[in-house]
Amino acid sequence: MDLSQATARVEELRSIIEEHNFNYYVKDNPTISDQEYDQLIRELIALETEFPELLTPDSPTQRVGGTPLEGFVKVQHAIPMLSLANAFNAEDLRDFDRRVRQGIGTDAPVHYVCELKIDGLAVSLQYENGRFVRGATRGDGTTGEDITQNLRTIRSLPLLLKKPYTVEVRGEAFMPRRAFAKLNEIRAERGEALFANPRNAAAGSLRQLDPKIADERSLDIFLYSMVSEEVLPVAAHSDALRLMEELGFKVNPERREFTGIEGVIAFIEGWTDKRNELSYDIDGMVVKVDSFAYQDELGTTAKSPRWAIAYKFPAEEAVTVLRDIELTVGRTGAVTPTALLDAVSLAGTTVKRASLHNEDIIREKGIMIGDHVVVKKAGDIIPEVVAVKAELRTGDEKPFAMPTHCPACGSELVRLDEEVALRCINPKCPAQIKEGIIHFVSRNAMNIEGIGERVVSQLYEHQLIHSVADLYYLKRAELLALERMGEKSVDNMLAAIEKSRENSLERLIFGLGIRFVGEKAAKLLAQHFGTMDAIRSASEEEIVSIHEIGTKIAESIHKYFEKPEVDELLGRLKEAGLNMEYKGLRPQDVDQNSRFSGKTVVLTGAMEQLSRKEAQALIEARGGKVSGSVSKKTDLVVAGEDAGSKLAKAEELGIEVIDEDTFISWINE
Length: 669
Ligand code: IVH
Description:
The chain has 669 residues and is an alpha+beta fold. Helices cover 37% and strands 20% of the residues. It folds into six domains: 3-62, Helix Hairpins (Orthogonal Bundle), CATH 1.10.287.610; 86-312, DNA ligase/mRNA capping enzyme (D-amino Acid Aminotransferase, Chain A, domain 1, 2-Layer Sandwich), CATH 3.30.470; 317-401, CATH 2.40.50.140; 430-500, DNA polymerase, domain 1; 505-575, 5' to 3' exonuclease, C-terminal subdomain (DNA polymerase, domain 1, Orthogonal Bundle), CATH 1.10.150.20; 590-667, BRCT domain (Rossmann fold, 3-Layer(aba) Sandwich), CATH 3.40.50.
């Protein structure tokens, strides 16, 4: 391939990848498999490596690019980023509507757009000729900070627009609730300080100098306005939002247009209850005059536009009595306190427990048993105790002290360097072992259906299991002897255990619960080394050499496999017949020089010597991808017996068609 061919292919790949990003991250509707997507990325990386002159920062391969910054560069906003005036009730909204109608001199109902007020961080994105060139924080409204590197890691942010517009768009970067809960879970496990809410977590992530950290934080973004020097083909805010969607921006779909304020008020009331069903936090609703002509007429004050207002939801807090503090020992030995509360209704659910996170928080807030406390939803399902109502004390409250010894096994608790959490470091602690087994059977690990927390506890308490290996030696008769265990559930359990023996290696690695090894690291390890034995005998240096695995993880893995009890555990798992190999395709197994490399192949009709799945695997191992339908993008069609409409379409489009024998001979080349 020469430079001009490479340039063309690189451009093509980038727009295809951008389209798939859009389908996946914006539309939530992927049209290709992860493998097919990875294949496109790999082809692009290969070309950019061969022709480094083609590598640009807006390439999808560079989402997590660049070296950590020394500090942030200041950015002047050409048009200031204003904030919004607030409304707290229906009357405030009616006043706003009156002011608007007075301002434009009409008695007629005004056309409004009502949107969710996303609880994140305002950002501005600059595009030149359709390319994302710079992103900045709001700062003080006039001067913000250049956070381009971090914003690029947000997969729903288009690096390349569908049309070559030069525009500035503004919106809200945020952390989805699940990502927030997961982040805090990991931080708690590592004994690091927790983020109070998703907004703080998002802000903290975008202010990281190293884009790799922002990348790990799974941020997302909704865009809500367009600011532009060039004249846009739109006359109203609602048109601008639609145009933004057409350009590839993620615009919040939960918006509605109304004529007159009463519809807006009813819509907002509806969202006051529904907001908890969203996968991200909102702190209110924004009402905007739709017509740009009216917006111009109304103008702005020094701080905020007169054509928009933010309705703020009432805070979701409730006061209740804290009856006791329960201590649980997690899989890693961290002892966490949970408040047991008098049932109270909060944001549509009944709350009886709330997180206290760690001892420091209990001490800082001065929480005592029997206190009236303020509980609040914190983006997660489990609410947290945010404050004590000291004025409601009766004198009967009792101070709480964290135990010095593990509530499960009695061994002395320790505080590891710089950690907030107290830990039980007894490897034989029953609570840790039990939690470890619960983790092992969980959905993202070995996915053993029918065995959950309750069954694990039951098996453990009856001493049928002492480690995860024992699951594979359970006998039907001993299970049937347990309470609440029918024949059917026992058979289902055994079948699920049996099935899990065949899991690909990454599930087992993740299931072992090695510290700091999450799903992603487990997959990287499995992919890189291929077998459990290879991982076990790898040196720390070899492990660190895997892109995206740092020294902390590598050290933990190496240490784990050095333990004699791990040796024994793996021996028993092997004896039980567990698969210890990675079943997916490993990057080094892909033959980049085959005739299938970079080609899109469609399989149609019946094949005699191979199943569809086998044929697909063979093509993918040769760097090709298999697609379900014939289009202009198809390079090759393999037609078996009785091929029908796909063959006809391929012939119509003049795409190369081969039969099964030819396919096999090409595979064997
Ligand atoms: S419009 C002139 N629309 O709320 C200001 N803002 O003070 C135009 N926000 O920090 C803002 N969701 O980032 C607008 N759908 C939405 C919004 C939204 C969240 C944030 C915005 C700003 C604050 C307003």
